[in-house]
Every structure is written in C-alpha cells, then in structure tokens.
Design goal:
The complex is a heterodimer of chains A (about 800) and B (about 300).
Chain A (H helix, E strand, L loop, with lengths): L2 H17 L9 E2 L2 E4 L13 E9 L5 E8 L3 H11 L3 E3 L1 E3 L2 E3 L1 E9 L47 E3 L6 H6 L16 E2 L2 H4 L40 E4 L2 E2 L18 E7 L14 E6 L8 E6 L3 E9 L4 E10 L5 H5 L4 E21 L2 E18 L11 E21 L2 E18 L2 E21 L2 E20 L18 E11 L1 E8 L5 E12 L4 E15 L8 E12 L3 H4 L11 E15 L2 E20 L7 E21 L3 E15 L7 E2 L6 E12 L2 E10 L3 E2 L2 E7 L4 E6 L5 E2 L3 E13 L4 E9 L7 E6 L6 E5 L4 E9 L1
Parallel strand pairs in A: 11-14
Antiparallel strand pairs in A: 1-6, 2-5, 3-4, 3-8, 6-7, 8-9, 10-13, 11-12, 13-14, 15-16, 15-44, 16-17, 17-18, 18-19, 19-20, 20-21, 21-22, 22-23, 23-24, 23-25, 25-26, 26-27, 27-28, 28-29, 29-30, 30-31, 31-32, 32-33, 32-34, 34-35, 35-40, 36-39, 37-38, 40-41, 41-44, 42-43
Chain B lengths: L9 H15 L12 E8 L2 E2 L4 E9 L7 E8 L6 H5 L7 E2 L9 E3 L17 E9 L2 E3 L9 E3 L13 E8 L10 E6 L2 E2 L6 E2 L18 E8 L4 E3 L5 E3 L2 E7 L3 E2 L3 E3 L4 E5 L8 E10 L4 E9 L2
The chains are: A mainly beta (about 800), B mainly beta (about 300).
Chain lengths: ~800, ~300
C-alpha cells in the first residue's frame, strides 16, 4: 500500500474539509425594545427614591428569563425591582431578522408614589418628593431613539431606559440559553457563536471551538475525541436540545454533524453540571437549534471542493417558521481516484452528509412547539490488498458507515412569568456497519428519549426545578472479532487468534428523575441544591446523585465597582456501562455503573471594562471504573469488573478581553489525571493526560469588514507506553510488542499557530465572505504518534501535518 | 480495537492512524532477513484432538550461519490466546532441544484437554508452543519476561532484540481439522519456478527499502498461488471464512510488498547483493488465520 500517497490525499481532504464551513457573514443585529412595562408595588416600609440597575436575560420571545442586580438600591428596592423586571416584556433582539436571546443592562428609577386622593387628614407615611402621578417614561437625559409606551397610571416604579442599546452591547454579552435557563452551574461556558466562527484553526466549525476552552485536551490526530478535565472520551456527552447524539464529527475529525448555521447556542459544561444531565461523568456539550426566521425568506448556498450546502428558511403563516438544510460532501467524485493504486482500491470514497429540518409554531405568546429532524451519514471503505506487515488481519475491506437520524418534538410552555415548562420527545435510529478485514460489527439502535423540565419561581428568593429524563434503546449487535484485549495490554497481532461471533439483542431502559432548588437568600447569593435519581435496566440498580452549586457575587457590578464572584460545586455523577460491558451473552450481567465525585471552586473577576478573569480549581474522584480482564472463557474474551479507580485535579484560567475592534481569549489548564486498574495498585498517569493546555485566541477588526485572527496552542504531549522489544507470533508471522513501564514516557509537546484573514462584502440582498487561513503558520512538526519497526526494536516519531493554507468562500442571503 | 463498540467512527480513525504511522516511518522492512529469524512453525495438524500427538516443523533463517542453541516449552490452556498469557502459564521451564532431531518438536495433547470446558472456552482451547533460538549459550534467568537467558561468547546476556522467541498455537478440537493453506505454484517473471532451480538475476545497486529505487531491469515479477481459502461452519457452530496471506522474506533484496492477500499475491522482487553475496534465499510463507501455514524456499543468484 502506498501509504504516503494515501496520507497526502487524506491530509488534503482533511484540510479542505475542515475549511468547508467557511466564513460566517457578520450579522445585522437589532437590539430588544421594551413593549410592556409593568406596575409594581412601592416596597412597604421604604422611603425615598432609589436607583436599581440590573442585568436582564431575555429569551428569543423577548421574555425576561433571568434578572440580576448589578447595582443595588437597597434590599427592599432590589426585591421590588427584581419582581418587576421579570414581568417586563420586550420585542426580542434580532440577528438578520431572526429573534435571538440576549442579555441587556436595565435600570429602574424608583420614586415614592404620589399621595392618594382618598387619604383624608391622615398624612401619608411616605410623603413623596415627586407629586407627579404620571411621570414621563423617558426622564433620562439621553432619550432613546425607541421610546417605550407610557407606563400605567398609579403607584408604579418608573422604568428608565439605560443608555441607548447598541448592537455592540449585545455583542458584548454571551448569547444565552433560551427558554428555561438551567440552574446556574458554577462553570458553564456559553460560546458566542458569531465569535467562534472567526477563530482560526476551526475552519468556522462551531463545535470545534470547544477544543479551545479551558479543561479540554487536544485529541489525538484524526480521533475527534472529546477529552474534558482528564476524563475518558466515552464519559462526556453531546446533546442537541437535550437529545443525545452518537457522534459529533463527520468521519472522526472533520466538520461537526450539526452546522453552526442552524444553532442558536452552544453550552459547554466541563464538570459539576446540574441535575438535568446525567449518565456521564465527564463534560457535557449541549447545542440548541435556533428558530427558523419568520420575518422573510432567507437562505444560504455554499459550494467548495469538499461539500455543498443549501439552506432555506422562512415564514409559513404569521406564527410559523420552516427551515430546511442539507449538506453533502463530494470528495468521492475525485478523491477515490487519488487514493487508488496497485495496493489499494476504494470501495466507497469518503462521503458524508447531514441534514436538518424544522418547523416551529408559536401557538401563543407563552407556548411554542417545534418539530425537528436531523441526521448524519458517514461512509468510507477501502479494499486493502496489501495487509499491514505488523498485523495481516488489517487487510481486505476496512471501513464502513456510521449514521444516525433523530426526530424531535419540543414543546415550550410558560403559563406565567413564574412558570416555565419545557418538554422534548425524540425518536431515532443509529446504525453502524464497520469492517476490519474478516472481522466486523453491525450495530443498529432504536432510541426513544423523553425529557420534561419544569421551573417555578415560587417567590423571588426561591425557584424550584424538577424534571424527567428518560431513555429507552433497543440494540441489535452482530459482530465477529478477536478477543477483547485486556486493559493495558501491548500491541499484538490479531491474525491467527481464535475469532468469535456474537449476536445480541439488548433493550436498555434508563429513566431518571431530578429536582433542585435555586435559593437566593440575598440578591448576590445563589444556592442550588439538587438531586438526580437514575435507573439502569442492565445493572438493575438505582443511583442517587446529590449535587450542590453556589454562586456569590461578593462585589456586584456597579458604577464604582467591578464584579467579583465566587462559585463552587460539589456533586456525584454516575455513568452506566457501555453496551458491550453489560449485554447478556457479551459482557458481565453483574457489572455496575461507574461513579465520579466532582468538586470545584472558582473566582470570577471583572478587571476593567471588557476584561474578565475566571479562575477555577477542580478535583474529581473516580471509582467503580470498568476494566477488562483477559478471560477467553467468555464470548467477548474478557471479563469486565468495577475495580478501576481514578483521580483528576487541576486549575483553569480563562481571561477574556473585548473592545469594539479587538477580542482576545486566554485559556489555560494545569491538571493531572491518574488511573489504576486495581485498588491495590499504585496510580499511574492516565493515557490521555495533558499537563498543560494553553490556547490564546485573538481577532482584530481592521475596518471595511476586514478581520484578522490568530490562535496559538501549546499542549503537553500525551503519555505513551514504550515498547522494549517483541515476541514472534508464529501464527501471524508478525511481532507482539513487549511493553515497558505503562505510560512512562510522553510525546513531544504540541504547539501551533494558526492565522486567518477574512473579508466580507455586503450587497443588497446577500453577503459574500472569503477567508484565507494559514494553519500551522510556522510549520512546526508536532509528534502525533510513535512508529515502530516490525520487531519493535526501533522507534521513530510520527509527525503531524505541515503548514497548510486553506481558502474558503461563502455567500448568504 | 476495543473501543469500536462505543465509537461508531473508530475504524475510520484507525485507518487515519495507520496512514499517519505508515507514512511517517522509514524502517528496514521486516522482509529483509540478515540474522537469525523464526519465520514459521507448522503444526501437523493445525487442529489437534485430545490424546493426539502433533508434530511441528520449524522454518527459520540463519543467513550468517551462527551457532544456535535451542529451547522449547508449552503452555496448556493458557488464560488467553495472547503470547504473554502463554508465557505466564508455562507448563514447566523451557528445555533445550535440537530441531534437527526427528520428533524433537512434538506435542502430546492431553486426553482430557477439552474436559470440563464451558462452551465459551472452547474457541480458545489450545496448547501454546514456545521456541527460543539463542545465538550463544542458553542460561538461566529472564529476558524481558521470557524465563530464559542467552549469553554470547563474551558472556553478555543478549537483550530480547537479539534473542528470537516465537510462540505458536495448536488449537484443540473434537472433530475439526483445518487443512494447511498449500502453496501450489511459484512464478518468477511469469514462469513456473521449481524449488531446485535457482534463478540468475542482476542485482540492484544499493540497499534502499523501496523497489521503486531499483532500475526496471532488476525488478522481477513474483507470484505465489495457493489453494482456495476454506469457508464453512466449525464444530462450535460459528461461520468462518479463512483469510490467507502470503508473506515474503529474503536474505538480500527488496520486495514490492511484504505481505499480500492470497489470490492477489502478485509481487515484485529485486535482488540487492554485492559480489561477495553469491546467492540470496527467498522464503515465501502462506498462512491462514486459523493456524495453518505452508512455505516455499527459493534461491536467486548473481549471473
């Protein structure tokens, strides 16, 4: 096999594929507008006037979903302002005509009510210095260009428009969760989708931006694995509006399966997430699909050498929006020829597609329903006529397909300002058929998920969250394979070892209930105790996960002070076994869920206008980890036991700076992740441990719609187990490695600089954006792996890709 | 391999890693044999019955004609079919033997080899045969987990890289046999190549690892044909379809590919020999993935 030729083709494919998401056009942003002020009770027992400043979180319907005091006017006035704020109603912010959630500053000027005409001779207990019963709605010296309607007559607080809302203000804050905000986890990173599209090295792919967040390790080349705070990839979960999906990236490590164009938000939880997520011990990525636009027809057409994408959206009546989108790669049209030679022929050249369809209807101002379909299909199959000399089993057909389809019904109902009830039902199919020569597996899953989330603001200082999160799956697995390797075993050929065939039909039922409180005893303090109970039918066990999160604004933001907040969390997280660990006939029927204890403590500090700093320390204790012990009396060739343990500790730093024309992010993690396969063993470093993870991102607006961006990354090399020699497997005619001390060495550190320059042209009905990205700008040859000679007597580093220029173009209606 | 259950895209990532590893490396090919190598161990029959005696025949290369000491051992029903599992469960110490002696490499399968085994254990019912080729004197001790040491003429204990240790599995079955993957023809430049007829060929200068570095005139077509692979249902009820590969070795020279799938085993060979090398030996080994093996040995000479 001419592997180098194959690799050059694959590298070009990857480089171009990663670019295919291309540049995002800069959005036209419209701020929210107040349309429904409220009348509020002047606090009993209070006197005088007060000014209360708040930060309001609005959903895409313009409803206030969260309010936080940024400048106190005193406890009584703060409470009244908060209660009033939640009943405000805005016309939502918009991007290119599409309603979006936003976070805005707001202020109340509170004056005592005028004396009642019926008060008689009894003097008012609170003589008003301002007898005007109908104050102007705009007493500000800076009248807004969009004056609000006059407030109702009578005793009232007077909402005062803060300095005019500009698009920059909205861009300054993070795009927030729409609908019911989850409990405020100590650490939840909500990514600015507009910002991440311009980060060099991501190719405009939104999901890949998570790799630059603190706590996220760099995956091995081509793997696309999500490694969060030292956790194994299978410990972390990816959701689309609460529905789990089986894989996040096409063909392992290219574009994400849900393009950024259809997303409204991306929330990343590195740990200590709330009770609404479970069945995982690592991190969580939850992306949210955006609503189709209803103001007018819109669309996107994008074509490049890798794929083509088409999206159409628009109104269907006054209250309904529809979106249809699809993308297909067409590398198979030309890459197949490039990969074929005397030693290799292409059965199926790499091809992927993904599609999204949505229809959303606003039943009323308080109720929305959306039906979505989304899915992805990846396929790549080679016929390798020249087996790998180190394992002749790697020959013949290698590859196959992986795909999934999900249908999702989402119902959001907010019967009052205090109650929010969201329901999501999904049904889907996941299908994989993969072959490795004479071995292979086929796996089909039908999955039904249901989630119901209720949030009730009982009183201003107390909110209740409760919900159901249920998952049923029906799995049909057929496989032919060599025995499952024991954990920590060295490379050895599979050729000549006894093969097994297995078939399993497994139904898994995993319902869960959760509940929590959000206590705000004082405005600056939030306490969030919660609990989650899970049942897993394969372990026949109920697990209980108590969790606690807290956030204290030690120094709230005000005109004279910068915000200082402390945050922390402590919680238990259970993760049920993978299907091969527990399926009857394949795994162990007595295997239990694994468990993790998460603890974190952090500080958020605003240092100056536009400059914020976040520091967080974390600790995780892992127990009951499932490890494989060689046991060829079992069909799969191994016995799975809950004897593994682990610990992870470290600290994260996130600094963000943003002004009009410049934004910069520094993310740094210092951590250590360790494991042991038996309780009586010493801890060893985890195979995916990365001590230092540094990302430095920046982008500059040069004017005239030119943007320059850069990203620098530095990552400690991953641990490897050195091989000290080999034994001859006389059935395979190849060598089995003899391992040295497990994970006692490391690859060289990775570092890379990516640059990007982008230009956008605005036309009357469409925009055109083009960018040039220079990946690995100073051509540093990182070490991605170690290659060994046929007998493991020699080793050489395997270097990654060289400097790569990437060009992308995109047009948008 | 183990994560493919949990990760649908694992094989595609495996392919990527293989590509990266293959292109990044530039090692001497394993087909080049310039010192003691254990190439194959043929069990007759590959599948043995309880109570049966299995004779084994060893194919090894010793191009430098070094004086060798040999040791052998067995592991009966090891906990796993891996090589290190066999070494951890040896039936006894490794004992010296002479491969030239008839019957020296024979194994007696116990009568009760299958007794008491659960159905799940039967696919891995086997006896492992360990062979050690010491280019020196055998000694007590351990070498990288192998319970034997080998000392050269200076008394230096040889590291594992200089001490060939091979292990072969003899599967134990009630009824199945598994025929050897018999080599039927060897063709050189399209013509039949009998074992006792050396071919005279010009040599390619240098010792590069790629046959493309050799002039076309020094490259020769080499083809190995075998009997068709077996397929069927084994006594354990599993469907099987054999995979047969042909592996190429030479004391001097370079091949187009080190391994080919049987049925697609057209290869190329270029001799890389200096005037001091009168001839080169080619070992052509056909293996099926159920323990069967056959081989052919040929000789090429300079004109």
């Amino acid at each position: 096999m001419d592997a180098c030729k194959l690799l050059r083709g694959a590298a070009a494919f990857l480089a171009i594929a990663i670019s295919s998401s291309a540049a995002g056009a800069h959005a036209q942003l419209v701020p929210p507008q107040l349309i429904e002020p409220v009348a509020v009770e002047y606090p009993p027992g209070a006197s005088g006037s007060a000014s209360v400043e708040l930060e309001l979180t609005l959903d895409a319907q313009g409803a206030v979903t969260d309010a936080m005091i940024t400048r106190s006017g005193g406890e009584a006035f703060d409470g009244a302002a908060l209660a009033a704020a939640r009943r405000l109603r805005f016309a939502p912010a918009q991007r290119d005509g599409t309603p979006i959630p936003a976070r805005i500053p707001f202020a109340f000027e509170i004056a005592p009510p005028p004396p009642s005409p019926d008060a008689g001779s009894t003097p008012s207990p609170n003589p008003s210095p301002n007898p005007n019963p109908n104050p102007s709605p705009n007493p500000s010296p800076n009248p807004s260009p969009n004056p609000s309607p006059s407030p109702p007559a009578g005793p009232s607080l007077q909402p005062v428009r803060s300095p005019p809302l500009e698009p920059e203000l909205i861009g300054e804050v993070e795009l927030e969760v729409k609908g019911a905000p989850p409990l405020r986890e100590p650490t939840r990173h909500s990514l600015d989708l507009e910002q991440v599209r311009t980060v060099p090295g991501n190719g405009g792919d939104v999901l890949r931006a998570v790799e630059s967040m603190p706590g996220v390790a760099r995956p091995a080349w081509g793997s696309g694995e999500l490694i969060v705070r030292g956790a194994a990839p299978e410990d972390s979960l990816v959701f689309v509006d609460g529905t789990p999906i089986p894989f996040a990236y096409h063909l392992g490590d290219t574009n994400s399966v849900v393009p950024g164009d259809v997303l409204e938000r991306l929330d990343f939880y590195p740990g200590n997430f709330g009770p609404h997520f479970g069945r995982g011990m690592g991190g969580v990525i939850d992306v949210g699909l955006r609503a189709p636009r209803r103001d007018r027809l819109g669309g996107l057409a994008q074509v490049d050498v890798v794929d083509g994408r088409l999206m159409v959206e628009g109104p269907l009546g006054e209250r309904t929006g529809v979106l249809l989108a699809a993308r297909r790669s067409w590398l198979d049209a030309w890459l197949g020829e490039a990969l074929s030679d005397a030693d290799t022929s292409v059965n199926a050249a790499p091809v992927y597609w993904d599609a999204q369809a949505m229809i959303e209807h606003e039943v009323s101002r308080r109720t929305r329903v959306r039906l979505s379909l989304f899915g992805a299909d990846d396929r790549f199959e080679l016929l390798i006529k020249t087996p790998d000399s180190r394992d002749p089993a790697l020959a013949g057909t290698i590859g196959g397909y992986s795909r999934f389809l999900r249908s999702q019904l989402r119902l959001e109902h907010e019967p009052s300002e205090r109650v929010r009830w969201h329901n999501t039902f999904s049904w889907g199919v996941s299908d994989a058929d993969q072959r490795f020569g004479s071995n292979g597996f086929a796996w089909r899953t039908h999955e039904f998920a249901a989630r119901s989330d209720l949030r009730v603001q009982l009183v201003p200082a107390l909110a209740l969250l409760a919900g159901v999160d249920a998952l049923w799956s029906f799995n049909d697995v057929r496989a032919r394979f060599q025995p499952y390797p024991e954990d920590g075993s060295a490379d050895s050929p599979y050729f000549g070892r006894p093969a097994r065939s297995a078939r399993a039909d497994v139904a898994l039922k995993r319902p869960a209930l959760y509940a929590g409180l959000e206590l705000t005893p004082v405005p600056a303090l939030k306490l969030m105790p919660s609990v989650r109970a899970d049942y897993a039918s394969d372990t026949r066990d109920v697990t209980l996960d108590p969790r606690m999160a807290a956030r204290w604004d030690v120094i709230p933001a005000s005109e004279h002070t910068l915000r200082t907040s402390l945050k922390g969390g402590l919680g238990l997280y259970h993760q049920p076994p993978q299907i091969e660990h527990s399926a009857p006939g394949l795994g162990n029927e007595d295997v239990d869920s694994s468990r993790a204890l998460h603890a974190s403590l952090g500080l958020e500090q605003a240092l100056a206008d536009g400059l914020e700093l976040s520091l967080e320390g974390f600790y995780k204790r892992l127990s009951q980890l499932i490890v494989a012990r060689a046991d060829e009396s079992r069909l799969i060739g191994a016995r799975f036991v809950n004897e593994g343990e682990g610990r992870v500790y470290g600290g994260e730093l996130l600094a963000r700076y943003r002004v009009d024309w410049l934004q910069a992010v520094l993310a740094y993690t210092l951590s250590r992740s360790e494991r042991r396969d038996r309780p009586d063993e010493r801890y060893r470093v985890f195979e995916l441990d990365q001590t230092h993870i540094l990302s430095l991102l920046g982008s500059v607006e040069l004017g005239r719609r030119w943007t320059l961006g850069a990203r620098f990354r530095y990552v400690t090399g991953r641990p490897i187990t050195p091989y000290v020699g080999g034994l001859v497997d006389l059935d395979a005619g190849a060598y089995a490695a003899i391992a040295g001390e497990p994970y006692s060495e490391r690859l060289r550190a990775f570092h890379q600089l990516d640059l990007r320059i982008e230009k956008t042209w605005d036309f009357s009905v469409w925009t055109l954006a083009a960018y040039l990205e220079l990946r690995n700008a100073y051509d540093h040859r990182s070490v991605e792996n170690v290659a060994y000679s046929y007998d493991y007597s020699e080793q050489k580093p395997v270097e990654g890709l060289p400097i790569l220029p990437v060009l992308g173009v995109r047009g948008e209606l | 391999m183990k994560r493919w259950f949990a990760s649908p895209s694992a094989p595609l990532r495996l392919l990527g890693l293989l590509l990266l590893a293959a292109c990044g490396a530039d090692f001497e090919p394993g087909s080049r044999v310039h010192d003691v190598r254990l190439l194959a161990l043929r069990a007759d029959p590959p599948f043995a019955r309880p109570g049966e005696r299995v004779e084994l025949e060893l194919l090894f290369a010793n191009p430098q004609q070094r004086a060798l000491s040999w040791a052998k051992g067995t592991c009966t029903q090891p906990p796993a079919s891996t090589l290190d599992a066999c070494l951890s469960a040896l039936d006894g110490p490794l004992e010296p033997f002479d491969p030239e002696e008839a019957g020296a490499l024979g194994v007696d399968v116990p009568e009760d080899a299958l007794d008491g085994l659960a159905d799940g254990e039967r696919p891995s019912a086997l006896i492992g045969v360990v062979v050690v080729a010491c280019p020196g004197e055998l000694a007590g001790g351990e070498t990288a987990g192998v319970p034997i040491a080998c000392r050269d003429e200076r008394g230096r204990a040889l590291p594992i890289g200089e001490l060939p240790v091979g292990i072969k599995r003899v599967f134990v079955r009630e009824r199945d046999r598994n025929a050897q993957p018999r080599i039927t023809r060897v063709l050189f430049d399209g013509e039949e190549w009998p074992e006792d007829e050396p071919r005279r060929v010009a040599s390619c200068a240098g010792d590069g690892y790629e046959i493309d570095d050799c002039p076309q005139a020094t490259r020769h077509a080499l083809s190995v044909q075998t009997e068709p692979a077996e397929r069927g249902r084994d006594e354990l009820g599993g469907e099987y379809r054999e995979q047969i590969v042909v592996q190429f070795y030479a004391s001097h020279g370079v091949f187009g590919s080190e391994v080919r799938i049987a049925g697609e085993a057209d290869n190329a060979f270029a001799l890389q020999a200096g005037p001091e090398d009168a001839s080169a030996t080619l070992w052509l080994v056909a293996r099926d993935d159920r323990g069967g093996v056959d081989w052919a040995v040929r000789t090429v000479q300079l004109p």
